[in-house]
Amino acid sequence: MQTRLLPILSATIVIAVGSMLPVYAAENEPTSTPAVHTELVTKDQATHLSSSLLLQTTNNKAVDLVKEDIKAKEAAKKAAAEKAKKIAAEKAAKEKAAKEKAEKAAAEKAAAEKEAAKKADADQQTSAQDQNQPSGQTMMMEATAYSSDPADALGGGSITATGQNLLENPMAVAVDPSVIPLGTRLYVEGYGEAYAVDTGSAIQGNIIDVHFSTAGQCEAWGRRQVKVTILG
């Protein structure tokens, strides 16, 4: 029985194995690799490509340089304008200061010349009066001034103690009669010739008070020491 089954079993195994080989072969067949398409570049094309890239890079740098140059020029132009504006302002300030200084100097010079001319005129008048001064007894006295001007709060009226009308004859001197008798003809330095025709409560001792027509003349006279000559 066993001897008869062996051939059958062997045949069955062979058939089974044979039927399995195609399937195994199909399952283990190597998978095909996809084709890779590679394009070859020639030397000239590579050179051209490199040149193009280099040119593009150079152009970009050139554009950047142009932009930087424009920016630098604009900054320089702005700085130059600001500098010019500052210089112009400083120049204008100096010119203004110089003009003001010149005007001030001119005004001071004019005022000094006017004052000098005024003093020279006063000195000339005094000198002329002194030259015409007749000889006689002299004394140094303190001289004040008064006027018949209504604007003068200290004015003593227009009629003197001796009755002289000051509006008609303004040349008059108030004296202390105990020192200079009324009616005495006098020559007062800086004032001129006049008569002692008036008195005053403040005129005591070695003091005289000369008359002027206006309060302004009295203020200009002020209070001073003068030489008084007794003419008679």
Automatic annotation (TrEMBL):
One of its GO terms (biological process) is peptidoglycan turnover. InterPro entries: 3D_dom, Resuscitation_pf_RpfB, RlpA-like_sf. Residues 123-136 have a biased composition (Polar residues). Residues 104-136 are annotated as: Disordered. Pfam families: 3D (PF06725). PANTHER family: CELL WALL-BINDING PROTEIN YOCH, RESUSCITATION-PROMOTING FACTOR RPFB. This is 3D domain-containing protein. It comes from Enterococcus dispar ATCC 51266.
